[in-house]
Each structure stands twice: as structure tokens, then as C-alpha cells.
Specification:
Two copies of one chain form a homodimer. Chain A has about 425 residues and is an alpha/beta fold. Chain A folds into two domains: about 170 residues, FAD/NAD(P)-binding domain; about 210 residues, FAD/NAD(P)-binding domain (3-Layer(bba) Sandwich).
């Protein structure tokens, strides 16, 4: 009898864990992703703010699964799922499955205002990060050339929309870029006069953290010179800046870190999703009525014990991946399978600038340098591959001691001129 | 009296040396470049073959000249020179000069066959390198998906046109990529079956080197599995491959390393150029009749003692830059200026794969491991910035001991699908 096919779509934190968890199982695993690399998304903002190179936080999927003989990696863009014939579709190619794991993640979402994307790019993949990096660095270059004082101020005003971890981390990183790394590099402008504004619609930053840590993060950001605006709802974004309810902030560089929308898994399956496009799955992460089809990670709407949906963070995705690998292994072996996924929350971390962070470790709340050390070690630890750990540590040590950034690149494409 | 303006166009090896050489001179220096970084071009092929990240071989120009108070850096694309009003034009902006240094380098040239560029990209700037990297890596991915044996072979055949240092170094690097780094990563194809073909129109590789070393380089390449075709003149290139005089080689991945064409300095100045577009300058690198306008580096046609034009390599550009900085310093001080630029050739180096190279050090010719060590140290030594040296050494050590490549990235742009 031939071995069952396990098809995994998406090689993020969830998908990679499922594949690795099946390394010795008697199945044929196919991992499909539209990029050739697994991305360590929690550090993507450091690519966008010129500290790390893209390759430092990316590992080739084939490399990760190289010695896993039962596993095949496919570079393809999945376009749908045929539930009846049990096939995953990627253009004209079809992949038959017995078990299907959909772990396709999320993209940023503009709450129905897709026209904002052009003016306020979001941060999910490497091309996003390098585009934002170029946009930030180029703003300083334009300001240096600008003779009009008001235009110059608008060029040196950076707005982040959304006070979650990415917004907080980006705001701190841009403030330090302008106040430290670029401080002596210009002749006409003073990069230290740049303003960073973080806009949050809710009453506090980092709403997944305890209130005390939200306050600490706000204070740390303000010490770095970041202006934090709470209860501020964005009404519009265009090339001149952001419109709030009663005011308008002019800026050439607006970055979107506010909302995410799950990839179109719900549409592929023709099933119910929540408002963020996440597929509502059962307690074992399977689709209702489809015990061998699972949705994981940012694409899934999973409830915790209190009936709250789990957040779209890496630890949730990793634990879900491990759970599903175990479930498939047991089901194939004819053993009793686990019925309910339980997320074990080891804690939440967010950095604020160069040597400060907040950490919510359940009963223990840390902030400042100690939290930052925790953040540092956790992120190094979970990076895949010795090489990435080495490179990231080297870059961080260099950035820490010199206040400089390692990858300040503006490419000029001779065929098109500088990309603005 | 106000200080004279020295305008330097191009922050490559020549331009940076001029700027640095004027750090204490009583002049106002303006460095104009269309990118924000100085690029260490001799290692660009390692970005194209996935060993190094772009940021490892690039330094922000502002960072290099940060503490040089008399110097300003401008990010702009120069569009012309008005010799009469003594101004450099960049779109609508104008930069008045008393001394002008044009060091704008060269692009690859297709000898009048610009239609080949689409099928056989060349390698001069970072976007070229990342595009070639993606093209090479993607060929293996397509081969893995391909069911037709002939198409698969064409996908796994890589052609380099031009047997100079870049062609030789790229051929070795692609051979090792396929035979080593990717060897275990695929399930349907064997990357070791990939063919690398190096086509050279002349009778030998590396024609700037002694004949003995050309032979050694050819043997080293052949040991790596590269097929070297000499006296082979390319008649046409299209999406199916390369046409020679009496044959046709099918390949999806053709890379152009054959010819260069100087940037349009000659046109800006309205002066005589050689066939490669290089401006013919006098013995002190100035324009005939324009003692304060200089053309340097790959943009200049400079004759050596034997009446031969100097090659377009980094050491020539660096020495020319130093010469011009001294000339300007002396002229401003009212001292006698050097009349004739003399190139001191310290030697030529080219690597062939992972631990072999050829070195022509005048009377001493080296090949193999010793030459490779020389190559290693010279390249690390001339890299600008401690950080770059550290990162490059780390990446090289990792690549050397593991046979792996650090930056195997294929980006999928969700807006456009995978870029082919």
C-alpha cells in the first residue's frame, strides 16, 4: 500500500514544524511555498530599518529539509484547493493529498482601504522590507536636497500606523536610525531633527501585553523621541500624509503596521472565516467535517480556553505545527489522536530601541535592559541555522557598539533611475 | 576668497580616492553618485552566486566621508556637463565646479547587440547581481518541476559569455553551487548533473594574464566540471540559448561577462572616445585643453608606457584617484604638479572556485591554493569598513567549511508572482 500524501502549503513557522515533525513518519510530505526560503518574520523590521540583510533572517526551505528523505519541496504559488478530488491546485499543476495542512499566513490589511497601500506600505515579506528601507533612507536624501523648509520637515516626519509589536519596534528603530546612525552623515539637514510619530487607534500600545508594560513601552519610546498618539483613528492616507479625525499630519513616509488579513485559504475551501479572513477551525485545528484538512498559524481562527481567538504570533504557529505533526503521526499509526490544541503561552516580548524591551512572562513582567537580553536570546535561539545566528549576532554586536547600521542601501537601477 | 569647488561624479574606486585625498585640502568637495553606496565590484559575482549579501560589499558613501568636513555627498543622477558655464547638470540641479573629476565607470556592452541583454544579463551593480542570483536559483527550481528531459537539460545548462576574470570566477562559482551547495536539495533532479559552459571568443582565458596562468585557470575550471570553449564567437542570443558560428547551445541561463562600455561621459563632454566609449585623456588624465577636468577609472582611455590602454580594474582606478587628489592639492597650493600618471602594477588575481586562484605578481606567477590565499587577503584588505571585513570573513569561513551558500533567496512578490 502506498504511503499517504501530506501536503503542507506554506513554509512559515507552522508549516516547517509540521514537516519536521513528520521526518520519520511513514508518509510522503510535500511542502509548497511561493518563496524558496523560510522567513524569520519577527526580525523583518530590522531589515526594513537597515540593521540586517535579508539573507540573515531567511533559510532556504530545501536546506532545512535537505536530509528528510520522505519530503519534497515545491516552489509554486497555490491557487486553490479541490476538496472533492482532494487536490491542491497551483496553476496547471495538481498535488493529491490525504492530509492537507494550510499554513499560508497573513498579509497586511487596510480595513477596506486598499488605496492606502500605495502610500503606506506594510511589512510581511522581504520585498516589503527592502522597499520600506529604501523609502526611509531616501526620505533623508530628499530632505538634504530640499530648499523649502516645510517640505523638508514633511520629509523628516515618519509615521507608523498601528501600535502593536511591529509598530513599536519600527518606531524605536527609526528614531535610533535618525538620532544615531545618520547623525553625522548630512551637511544641510540634521537627521536628529527627524520626527517619528506612532499612531494607535486604541487607548494603549501593545494591547496583548499587561497595561503596565504598555505604559513602559510608551515611556521608552518617548525617551527615544518618538511621539505616541493614542485613541487616534486614521481616516485617510495619501501622498501628503495621514488624516485623523480632527487633524492632519503631513509626512512623505507612512508605514502601515495596523492590521492583517489572512491569505485566501477561506476562499479556496469555501468555508466560514472571521472578519480578518481567518478560517474557523475546530479544537483540533481541522475543518468542520474534514478531519484530515487543517488550517494553522495566522490563517486560522483558533479559540483558547476563555473563548478568545489566539494571536497571530510565531509561538502559536510553532505549537500548532507540532500538534498537527503529532496528530497525523498518531492517526496514521492507528493510535488515539489528541483532540484539543492548547496553546502554552511562554510569554510576549517586544523591543523598544537599542537596549530596552518589555517582556510579559506570565507572572513575571520585565522591562528595560533585562527584558532586552531576554528578547535577544529568544530571537537568536529560534533563528534557523547556525549561519544565521552567527551573522545576526555579528551584525547586532556591530550595531550595538558603533550605533551604525549595516545595510543602508539605496539601489539606483540605471534602467529606471532611483526608485522613489 | 572662496574655496575652489571640486566636483567628483561617481563614488567608485577612483572617485572615493580623490575625495579622501582631498580631506585636508582647502577646497569644497562635492561627491555625486546615483546610488548611496560605494560598491566593492570585484566581489559582486559572489552576490550573484549566493555567497554574499549585497550589504556585505557596499558601504554608504556618506558613512565613508562622514568626518570629512569639507565634503558633501549628493545622491543624484548626472545628466550632463556644461563646460562653458562650468557646471555639472543633474536634472534641474546644477553644481558649479572649478575642478571636475568624472569617474563614472562602465556598463556591460553587447557590441551593438543590445537586444541580447534581455536574455544574457550582465553584472555591474547590485540589482544586476540579485537578478542573476534569482535567475540561476530559479533555473534549478524549474528543472525540478520539469517532466520533459530535454527542457530539463536546457534548464540545467548555464552559459557564461566572456572568459575574463568575471566569467572565470562566475563559472567556478556556479559549478560549485550546483555540485556542492545544492547537491542534496532536490528530489527529482541531480544538481550535480548541471553543466556550466564558458565561451570565450579569443584563443585563451584571462588574456591580461601570462599564458601559463590562462592554462592553469582553464585546467582548474575543467576540474570543477566547467566546459571551456575557446575561439568561439557568439553570433546570437535569445531565450533558447546561444548561437555560435557552426552550432547552437541551448540554455535558459546565459550570463554576459564579455564587454564593457564606458558611461556617457564622452557625450556629456562632446569629446573623442575610443570604441568602448572611454574618453581619451592626456598623460595627467585631464581633457585636452581643459587642465582642470579629469576622467578616471573605467571611463577613461589612458595609455601606459608601451602605448597600451590601461585595463579597467580597481587598482588602476585607485591609483588614478590618488594621483588626481595630489595634482589638485598641489595646483591649489601653487606648487608644481605631477605631469604623467604611471600605473604601478602590483599584480593580477582571479579565483577559480573554492580554494584555487591564479596570481600574476610580475615576475612571480602563482596558482592553486597559495594564489587563493593571496586573493583572499587582498580582497579582505581592500574592502571598506571593519563591518564588511567581518561579515565577509564570517560568510567565507562558513561557505568554506560547510560548502553552503548564505544567501539563496528567491523572492516571491505577492503582487506579481515569482519573478522569472
Amino acid at each position: 500500500m502506498s504511503q499517504p500524501n501530506v501536503v503542507i502549503v506554506g513554509a512559515g513557522f507552522a508549516g516547517i514544524r509540521v514537516a519536521k515533525g513528520l521526518s520519520r513518519a511513514k508518509v510522503k510530505v510535500t511542502v509548497i511555498d511561493r518563496s524558496n526560503h523560510h522567513l524569520f518574520q519577527p526580525l523583518l523590521y530590522q531589515v526594513a530599518t537597515a540593521t540586517l540583510s535579508p539573507a540573515a533572517i531567511a533559510s532556504p526551505i530545501r536546506g532545512i529539509l535537505r536530509y528528510q528523505a520522505n519530503t519534497e519541496v515545491v516552489l509554486a504559488e497555490v491557487t486553490g484547493v479541490n476538496s472533492k478530488s482532494r487536490r491542491v491546485l497551483a496553476g496547471e499543476r495538481e498535488f493529491p493529498f490525504d492530509y492537507l495542512v494550510l499554513a499560508t499566513g497573513a498579509r497586511h490589511s487596510y480595513f477596506g482601504h486598499d488605496e492606502w497601500e500605495k502610500f503606506a506600505p506594510g511589512l510581511k515579506a522581504i520585498p516589503d522590507a527592502t522597499a520600506i528601507r529604501q523609502k526611509i533612507l531616501y526620505a533623508f536624501e530628499l530632505a538634504e536636497m530640499e530648499s523649502d523648509a516645510t517640505t523638508r520637515e514633511n520629509l523628516l516626519r515618519f509615521i507608523l500606523v498601528g501600535g502593536g509589536p511591529t509598530g513599536v519596534e519600527m518606531a524605536g528603530a527609526i528614531a535610533e536610525l535618525s538620532h544615531r546612525a545618520l547623525a553625522s552623515d548630512f551637511r544641510r539637514i540634521d537627521p536628529r531633527s527627524a520626527k517619528v510619530i506612532l499612531i494607535e487607534a486604541g487607548p494603549r500600545l501593545l494591547n496583548a501585553f499587561p497595561e503596565m508594560l504598555s505604559l513602559k513601552a510608551k515611556k521608552s519610546l518617548e525617551r527615544l523621541g518618538v511621539e505616541v498618539m493614542l485613541n487616534a483613528r486614521v481616516q485617510g492616507i495619501n501622498e501628503t500624509g495621514v488624516a485623523l479625525e480632527n487633524s492632519r499630519i503631513f509626512s512623505r513616509t507612512v508605514i502601515w503596521t495596523a492590521g492583517v488579513m489572512a491569505s485566501p485559504v477561506g476562499k479556496w475551501l469555501g468555508v466560514e472565516t472571521d472578519r480578518a479572513g481567518r478560517v474557523k477551525v475546530g479544537a483540533d485545528l481541522s475543518l468542520p467535517g474534514e478531519p484530515n484538512v487543517f488550517v494553522l498559524g495566522d490563517a486560522a481562527h483558533v479559540l483558547d480556553e476563555k473563548g478568545q481567538p489566539l494571536p497571530g504570533v510565531a509561538p502559536v504557529a510553532m505549537q500548532e505545527g507540532q500538534f498537527i505533526a503529532e496528530l497525523i503521526r498518531k492517526r496514521i499509526a492507528g493510535k488515539a489522536t489528541p483532540k484539543v490544541f492548547r496553546y502554552f503561552n511562554k510569554g510576549n516580548l517586544a523591543t523598544v530601541g537599542r537596549s530596552s524591551a518589555v517582556a510579559d512572562l506570565g507572572r513575571v513582567h520585565l522591562s528595560g535592559w533585562l527584558a532586552w537580553m531576554a528578547w535577544l536570546f529568544v530571537h537568536i535561539f529560534y533563528l534557523i541555522g547556525f549561519r544565521n545566528r552567527l551573522i545576526v549576532m555579528t551584525e547586532w554586536a556591530w550595531a550595538y557598539f558603533t550605533f551604525q547600521r549595516g545595510s543602508r542601501l539605496i539601489y539606483s537601477d540605471y534602467r529606471k533611475g532611483v526608485d522613489k
